[in-house]
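Retro notes (design track)

What went well: tokenization of the new backbones is finally stable.
What didn't: we kept losing track of which sequence belonged to which structure.
Fix going forward: every design gets posted as structure first, then sequence, in one message. First example under the new rule, 245 residues:
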């Protein structure tokens, strides 16, 4: 064997030794899983509404688009002027929908339909979303608006401008409810309730109460009566506790 081959044999021997060397032992996680209990709690707080959100719509029809638009603009301008004179701020008045739509005459049977249906007029619709912060004015506001030209409206929702205090009370009630349930369960099981590991929340706002959906009539009674009721704010919490055995 020649001396210049010795480094090659040394590398082969080292590789063989590494291939057959025992692998290091993999540490196993033998830590037992922590015992836990998961409960849900519910809390609810009611609050009398202090604000109404309503839509006031003006729909105008005329043979020409310009004529329908002019009539619509005049009626809505009167409504806006009346609302501002009654103390409503600009931030509480917002145009939520505006549309100009042609009206078509269907093509009678037997006539030439190649040219398509004929336009016989136009409809202009303008809807204003109003936030009213004085509910005592609601009935009179609706009545005056109808007399000024509002002929379509709906989705009057009673809400609260600042419901945070009621929501906080509902949260406290939900956590207290979850804690009471956890104590009852652990006492019945003969174990001790440990620390809180995790809390999650699910909050739902009250559904709007709709009063008017149909087209409004100018013959509506003065100061239409309304009942605002109460808003209910609900909170559900899921709480994970450790169990001390």
């Amino acid at each position: 064997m020649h001396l210049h081959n010795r480094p090659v044999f040394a590398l082969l021997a080292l590789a063989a030794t590494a291939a057959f060397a025992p692998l290091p032992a993999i540490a196993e996680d033998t830590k037992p899983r922590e015992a836990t209990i998961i409960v849900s709690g519910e809390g609810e707080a009611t609050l009398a509404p202090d604000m109404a959100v309503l839509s006031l719509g003006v729909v105008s029809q005329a043979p020409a688009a310009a004529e329908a638009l002019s009539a619509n603009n005049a009626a809505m301008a009167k409504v806006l002027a009346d609302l501002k004179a009654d103390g409503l701020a600009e931030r509480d008045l917002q145009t939520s929908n505006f549309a100009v739509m042609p009206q078509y005459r269907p093509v009678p049977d037997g006539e030439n339909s190649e040219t398509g249906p004929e336009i016989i007029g136009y409809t202009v619709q303008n809807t204003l979303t109003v936030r009213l912060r004085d509910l005592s004015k609601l009935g009179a506001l609706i009545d005056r608006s109808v007399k000024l030209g509002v002929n379509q409206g709906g989705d009057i929702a009673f809400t609260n401008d600042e419901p945070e205090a009621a929501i906080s009370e509902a949260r406290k009630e939900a956590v207290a409810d979850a804690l009471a349930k956890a104590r009852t369960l652990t006492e019945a099981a003969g174990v001790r309730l440990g620390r809180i590991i995790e809390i999650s929340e699910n909050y739902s706002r009250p559904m709007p109460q709709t009063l008017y959906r149909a087209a409004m009539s100018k013959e509506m009674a003065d100061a239409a009566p309304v009942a605002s009721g109460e808003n209910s704010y609900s909170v559900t919490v899921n709480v994970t506790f450790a169990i001390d055995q």
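Added context from the reviewer: The helical segments are 6-19, 65-85, 138-148, 164-189.
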